[in-house]
Amino acid sequence: MSSRTRNMLLIATLLAFVFFAFVFQTFPWLDIWFSNLFRANGRFWPKNWIVLESVRTFASILALSVPILAAILFTMNVVFKPATQIPNRVWAYMCTVYILGPALFVNFLLKAYWGRARPQNIPEFGGERPFTPPLTMSDSCPRNCSFVSGEASSIMAGALVICLVFLPGLGKSGRIALVSGALFVSTLTSFLRIAKGRHFLSDILFAADFMALIAIVLFFAFGIHKFAHKISLSMVLPDMLAMLKAARRRPARNPTTPVDPTSDIAKYGISEKL
């Protein structure tokens, strides 16, 4: 990817933020209207609906598997130094996106301090906490608040890093399949959060925009754009096998020679290498 592509992506994410901010701050009722589309008989979709819970569980596992796998591969590369096709900075990049994005920026900062009440807790939907537009800080929610969606951020972070890293090395059909799959999973899980009354539409859109900005900036900061066209998803499994082989071949440490308990070394801790 060229610097022109980088600039276009960054400008697109910034323009998206300006657009979302204008729309939802000027017409805040859009959030309530959209959430109401997922209500029936005066309530959101049931929390114990096994279909929704199964999809949510699958999505959560999928979201967590990306940073966990990246952290494992990064650590094995550092410890065992195998001959791999994918540079270790790729796995470092993925881990960093998750740490700075969903972990710190979303859960530690926004959800902890922004104070936006969730849809199920506002008066319009039977709650008692006041509704606030997305970019208006409030004290309506004490902790684990609505803005922005943590689960959507994790899913989108995973989709973004996988697409940014592996999309350039794929053919046309592979790109279509990867982007379609990423959009489907991200959109479905996001709508499920809205359907359960846990998040507004703006919580999802701002989460996507924030994660895109972080993922794109770090993608170029780590220099992944310089070699992304040379790597592909098909290299991941062979690299994992190479790491396992390197771990098995790692020589064991030489056993220490037992020390005579009556010697000065044992009694006084005198080193043999003086």
Describe this structure as you would to a colleague.
- There is one protein chain.
- With 274 residues, this protein is mostly helical.
- It has one domain (3-239).
- Helices cover 62% and strands 1% of the residues.
- It is built from nine helices and two strands, in the order H-H-E-E-H-H-H-H-H-H-H.
- The protein has helices spanning 3-26, 29-36, 50-80, 88-113, 150-166, 172-195, 201-221, 236-249, 264-268, and strands spanning 39-40, 43-44.
- It has a two-stranded antiparallel ribbon with strand order 1-2.
- Strand 1 and strand 2 (43-44) form a beta hairpin.
- Helix 1 packs antiparallel against helix 7 (201-221) and helix 3 (50-80) packs across helix 8 (236-249).
- The protein is elongated.
- The N and C termini lie far apart (58 Å).
- The model is unreliable at 263-274 (pLDDT under 50).
Features:
about 270 residues, mainly alpha, two-stranded antiparallel ribbon, 9 helices, 2 strands, elongated, disordered C terminus
Brief digest:
This protein is mainly alpha-helical and 274 residues long. The protein has one domain (3-239). The protein is built from nine helices and two strands, in the order ααββααααααα.
